[in-house]
Amino acid sequence: MRAEKPIIEEETETPVVKGKHQKPLRNSKKGKLLQGGYKTSSWVLILLFLTIVLGMTLAVILSAFGEEWYGTIFPEGYTVEWFVNAWQAYEVGEYFKITMEIVLTATVISLVLSLPTVYILARRDFPFKQALLGFFQMPFTLPDLLYAIPVASIFYSIGLAETMTGLIVVNLIVGIPFSVFILLPYVESLDPRLEYAAQSLGASKFKLFQRVIIPQIVPGITASAINIFIRMFNTFTIILLISGPKTQTLNVMVFSVLQGSGSQPPAMLNSLALTLMIPLLFFSFLSLWVSSFTQKRLGK
C-alpha cells in the first residue's frame, strides 16, 4: 500500500493594495505641529500667569518695605517703618491675639472631637455611613455663603453672634470635617491585629486609644492640626457675618481697612496685607514639610 504524501498547505500572500499609507495624526508632521503648538501655548499661559501673580506680589513687598518709590524700577531705600506704623495705627497685635485665641482653641477642640469620630468611621460599618461622610464634605465643597447666611441668622437669634464662643463654634463647622478627612486614611491604614492583641491583654477602650492608636497617627494629627489651623485662620465669609467690633479677626480687620482706605499711604496698606500673608505662607510651607516628612517616614 502506497503511503500518502502529507498535504502541505501553500501560504497565500495577502495582496497588497498599492497606494499611499496614511500615518496616524499623532505621528504625522501635522500632528506633531499641533502637539507642539499645544505645549507652547500651555507654557506661555503658565508663564504669563506666574508673571502676573509674582509681579503683583513683588510689587506689594517692595512697596511695603520701600521708603520712596516714584518713577523708578525699585524703591530708593528700604525700611520697616510702614509695618511699625500699621501695627500702631490699627492695633494689629490685638487683632492677632484675638485670632490666635479663636483659631488655637478651635483647632484643639476639632482634633479632640474628630479623633473618636474618625476611629468609628474607620472601624465600624453602620447604616447611612456614606451619607454621614457626604455631610462632612459639605462645609468645604459648598460655597461659603450657602451655609454662612443661615448659620449667622441662627447665631444672631440665640445670642452667639459677636462673641468669642460663637466664633469658636463657627470655626468648628470648618475644622471638624476637615480634620476628619485628613485623619481617616491614617486610621484606616492601621493594622487592626494590634488592637486585638491589646484587647486580649486586658486593655480598655481608653487605654487602647491612648497607647495604641494615637501614637501611630501622630504624623496625621500633626498634619491635620496645621491644615485646619490654616483653614480656620483664613476663614473670612462667615466670620465677617457674625463678628463684632471687639471680636474681629485679623483678616476681617484687614479687609475693613482696605475697603475703607481713603487717605492712607499705599505702602502702609501693603504692609498691612503682608502682615496677614506672612503667617499663612509660613504655615503653608510648614504643612508641605510635614506632609513630605510623613510620606518619607511611612515609606511612600
UniProtKB/TrEMBL annotation:
Pfam family, one: BPD_transp_1
Keyword Coiled coil among record annotations: no
GO terms under cellular component: plasma membrane
Membrane topology according to the record: Multi-pass membrane protein
A GO biological process held by the record: transmembrane transport
Keyword set, alphabetical order: Cell inner membrane, Cell membrane, Membrane, Transmembrane, Transmembrane helix, Transport
Transmembrane segments: 42-65, 102-122, 134-158, 164-187, 208-230, 267-290
Record protein name field: Putative spermidine/putrescine transport system permease protein
Protein's organism: Sediminibacillus halophilus
